[in-house]
Amino acid sequence: MKRRLLTVVSAILVLFVVASCGKKNGTDTGNGSDKKIVKYGKAAGPYTVLFEQAIIPILEKKGYKFEVVEFSDLLQNDTALNEGDIDVNVEQHTAYMNNFNESQKGNLVALTPIPTVPAGIFSSKHKSLNELKNGAKIAIPSDASNAARGYALLQKAGWIKLNENVEIAKATQKDIKENPHKLEIVEMDSSNIPRSLDDFDFAVIPGSIVYNAGIDASTVLLQENILPHLLLQVVVKKGNENSEWAKAIVEAYHSDEFKKYLDENNKGLWFVPENK
Fold first, then answer.
1. Distance CA 53, CA 76 (A)
2. Sequence spans of domains, the chain
3. Distance CA 127, CA 191 (A)
4. pLDDT tens for the 276 residues of the chain, in order
5. 31-116+230-265 and 120-225: identical CATH topology
């Protein structure tokens, strides 16, 4: 009887220890505010590379560890973030995030602006904006947020004039008030623009796509003036913005160590927000 009782007690103790260990591990890797293992999403572009090269080393000194989850595009990245499969990504601006939240019923929030590569006008046929001819064929991104910045950039070049009442972040082809050069503006997936560059006279290409395609950024003919809603952001799911790990990421982007890294490595690629 004593032996049987001892066996039962021992089994209970083992279960208790296992449960305790599981709870402890859950605190480290789960969704707790003080967890030390953070999962980040990576699709493509320079922003996650910057995160890996400059931000993660800062946070590793504070005891954080990071796990990367790779995706083929930003939509998959955001979907995983919204579903809680990852904790953070750094590959979108506020305009894209807001569009995702609206179209996908998402709950993503932006924490802080980060260094951003501006969109620009490029060409494989022309070396100057002055070479524009009537009826020129222009490629711009097709997604709503980047299409709007494309139209804004064409207006900056003096090629079109938008309706003065339009919110620039929501500009579409329908908002073109004047098109004196009768430009043929073609909206297409931004990732396909570089390989189709020879089919167009000029093209508006987002900075991340310029980086991914290996285009020489110094060949840009005109860069955009980056508006606040187009600055890249650290993005998390709503409810995690006040977690200790999220605050630590924000602090790293604002740290002197990160500023020093940028001073030593920024070769004109990055536009750095004033809060840096």
1. 23
2. 31-116+230-265, 120-225
3. 22
4. 444 444 444 444 444 444 444 433 333 444 567 799 999 999 878 999 999 999 999 999 999 999 999 999 999 999 999 999 999 999 999 989 999 999 999 999 999 999 999 999 999 999 999 999 999 999 999 998 899 999 999 999 999 999 999 998 889 999 999 999 999 999 999 999 999 999 999 999 998 899 889 898 889 999 998 888 889 999 999 999 999 999 999 999 999 999 999 999 887 778 888 764
5. yes
Return the CATH number of the domain spanning residue range 120-225.
Answer: 3.40.190.10
Which token pair is 50? 């910057």
| Cβ neighbours, 10 Å, residue 80 | 17
Whether the CB-CB separation of 65 and 275 falls below 8 Å is answered with no
According to CATH, the topology of domain 31-116+230-265 is D-Maltodextrin-Binding Protein; domain 2 (3.40.190)
Residues 6+ apart with CB under 8 A from 249: 38, 55, 59, 88, 111, 234
